[in-house]
Structure formats: C-alpha cells, structure tokens
Specification:
TIM Barrel; 8 helices; 2 domains; alpha/beta; binds zinc ion; 5-stranded antiparallel sheet
Length: 420
C-alpha cells in the first residue's frame, strides 16, 4: 500500500480543506460516467478600505474621522504592501480610497460637509513629496492595485460635528442627492490633482452605511447616481444594508443596473495591525481595512503581506473558487457562477445563459472561467464561445485540475464544450 509521506499528507490535507472553505457552488456537475467534474467557480476579490489617509489617528472623539486607527502616520511603503500582495498573487487588490488628505489646493473649503474643518479646511500639513512618490507608485503598478471610491472625509459634518457616514446615515438613508453628486465631483478633482484618474468604476460606502434601492424620501437610489459617474459595482456587507431583503440573487443584487455585492464578514477588525489573518472567507469578497495588511514598523510590512499570500493562495488552487485577476473578471464571473446553468448531456457540457442575460445590469457578461477535475488532462472544443486560455495541473491526489478561460459569443443564449 502506498504510504503518504508527511509533507504530501499535509499538502493534500490543506488542499482538501481549502476546497471546502467557500460556500459550495450550485453549478458543480459530474459527467455521467464520472470521468470529469466541472464547475463555474466562485471568484474571490480582495477589497481594502480606508486607503489614502496620511494620518493614522482615530480622531472620532475630537470630531475628526475614525481614519485607520493606528499609532503612526501612513507612508508610501503602506501602498507598496498592497502592490506586493497584488504581484505575488497575480491579482489587482482594490484600494477603497479616502481622498481628503491628498488635497494640495484646499478645494474642500467649498465642500464643508466633507471635513472636520468645514470652510476653514487647511491640508498643508499633508502636502509633501510623499504625495508624488505615492502617485507614481500607483500609476506605475496599476496592474496590481485598483483604486475604488470610498470617500472624501469618510463621515458627514454639520457645523463641526460629524454623523456617520459620508454617503448615508446610520439607517442607510442616502444624504441629499446634490451633496452626493458634489462629493463624487470632488473625489474626481482630487484624483486629477495627482493624475490618478479616470474615475473608478467601483464603490465601497464608508462605515458600510448604504441602502439598496431608494431610501427615505429620495426618488433615486445611490446606485442610480453612481451610475451617472460610470460606477457599475458596489461592494458592501448586506447584514447592515437598508432594504437588504430586496436583493435578488443571494450574493449580489442589481440596483438601477449597478451590481451590488455582499462583502460578508471581514476576518479582522478595522484597526488590527501586525496580525496574520485567521478564519475562513464566507463569500466572494476578502474584505479588510488598510492596517490589516500592515505592520507597526513599515519596514516590516512584507511580513504581514506574506501571511496574506499564504492565506489566499489555497483559494486559487481550490476546485470551486479562484482569485479573480481584476474586478472586471470578478464581476462577470460572479454573474455566471450564480446564474449560468451547466448541464451534462451525452458527454458534452452545455451552458445556459438565459438567466444571466435576463439581468438588468449595465456591465459585461462575456468572459468567465471554468474548472474541470479529471483523472487525466482533457482537450475541449467549444461552440458558442471561444477558449482563450487553459492550463492543467496534477494535484497531489493524482487528479488533474484544468482551468479554462472562455469568452462567449454574446448573441448565443447557450454554448457547448465537448472532449476532443
Ligand atoms: Zn471606511
């Protein structure tokens, strides 16, 4: 009898346990002779909140924002930590940006609800060479970090006193629409001060205060206004979202044509620093706050990043999950994972896109990825879609795991793959 050496056993056990971490896909289909199993895996995306502060101070007791709540200032090395994670895993972590401390021209004096100083806003303390250095880092590494709209000052000030939060109140009722639009305009202006445009296509509400669909007396939802700015993806935990019962598809809903994805539960609390991640992801978003990937000594940030790399890698190797390389594929994959039907018939895999295409969503749904598990590497031929790339990897248990990237012919409501 073949005995497993200890190293093989540990690796196999890790692989098996990682395969059971995420919620099981509804779309796992085994061929009738059990020669292979196919799945549209759940994509995983890293979303990091509260990036952009230069002060790390939690100022909420003095009517200043919560910021990141760490006992030091932020430095360009803190951005390098995110880029390091992105490069190591071949992904584009989302940096949900708070932009007020990037204001070199004090334009936020014209937006008094957005900061603790109101009309007296003065940001000269944070104007320095670190801005240009970091802007260069972000521009030169855009394949491994994606900017996302989070906020200007994170909270909402009235005469020097703040309430939570910038985009909606604690009940998730949206702030006045004219304020929402101005904050989005000024977010864009602050990006432009540093050549960091164009406006991102994604959004994380501050303090997770958000409503699905219209809230309060408003006729339009926040999503409907964001759509006017080219944003088609909102990421927020549904457990604190107003009108969460209206979400149509479990992991996500469509609000005025905008995809709204459940962030689930973060692994670490918002101000935890210099601590490796623990636990399991509960859904498609690996949500965290900036300190969670950092060290109290910025020169040691890489030590914490390495722990996240080791934590996330198994989700890419697992049969029913993978790490989405960017938020564009993440969005498309999530729709197909949740809604595209897979059927096995006479040795063929058939895909049914009727539910996916019925979505009232403004984004694309052309590309997705499937995984196939089989005793041997297989070659497939597709109709109704194109195979863009495929790779095969033999696992410790002898099975071959194939990853196949496809692009649909969007005019076809079905597609098939056959073994050749
Ligand atoms: Zn935040």
């Amino acid at each position: 009898m073949k005995s497993l050496n200890r190293r093989t056993f540990i690796k196999t056990a890790a692989l098996l346990s990682s395969a059971s971490l995420a919620p099981k896909s509804k779309a796992i289909v085994m061929n009738s002779d059990q020669s292979f199993t196919v799945v549209i895996p759940m994509p995983i995306q890293v979303v990091i909140d509260d990036v952009g502060w230069w002060s790390g101070k939690d100022g909420h007791e003095n009517q200043e924002p919560f910021r990141t709540g760490i006992n030091r200032n932020h430095v360009p090395e803190d951005y390098e930590a995110i880029i390091h994670l992105g490069k190591a895993l071949g992904i584009r972590p989302q940096a949900a940006m708070v932009m007020c401390e990037w204001d070199t021209k004090n334009i936020l004096r014209d937006l008094p609800h957005s900061t603790w100083m109101g009309k007296e806003w003065n940001n000269e303390k944070w104007v320095g060479p670190w801005l240009e250095k970091t802007a260069d880092l972000l521009s030169n590494n855009s394949d491994h970090i994606e900017l996302t709209v989070h906020g200007i000052g994170h909270e909402y000030w009235t005469n020097g006193t703040f309430t939570r939060a910038e985009w909606a109140d604690m009940q998730g009722v949206m702030r006045p629409p004219e304020h929402i639009k101005k904050h989005l305009d000024y977010f864009g202006k602050l990006l432009d001060q540093h050549g960091l445009g164009p406006m991102p296509r994604s959004f994380v509400p501050t303090a997770f205060r958000h409503g699905f669909g219209p809230t309060g007396d408003h006729e339009q939802s926040l999503a409907a206004i964001l759509k006017q700015y080219g944003i088609d993806y909102i990421n927020t935990p549904f457990r604190v979202m107003a009108n969460a019962g209206d979400v149509q598809h479990g992991l996500f809903g469509i609000d005025s044509g905008v995809l709204t994805v459940d962030r689930g539960q973060d692994l670490l609390t918002w101000d935890t620093i210099a601590t490796p991640p623990r636990g399991e992801l509960s859904g498609p978003t690996c949500g965290m706050h900036w300190p969670n990937i950092l060290h109290t000594d910025p020169g040691r940030n890489h030590e914490i990043v390495e722990t996240w790399i080791r934590f996330l890698e198994p989700y890419d190797r697992s049969f029913d999950t993978f790490l989405a390389p960017d938020s564009d594929l993440f969005r498309q994959q999530l729709l197909h994972h949740q809604l595209t039907g897979i059927h096995q018939r006479d040795g063929r895999i058939e895909f049914d896109f009727s539910r996916t295409d019925a979505l009232d969503y403004i984004g694309e749904r052309k590309r997705f990825l499937i995984k196939v598990l089989s005793p041997n590497a297989l070659d497939f031929q597709a109709s109704g879609m194109r195979i863009l790339a495929q790779k095969a990897e033999r696992q410790e248990n002898g099975q071959v795991l194939m990853t196949i990237n496809v692009e649909r012919d969007i005019a076809q409501k079905t597609a098939t793959m056959v073994i050749v």
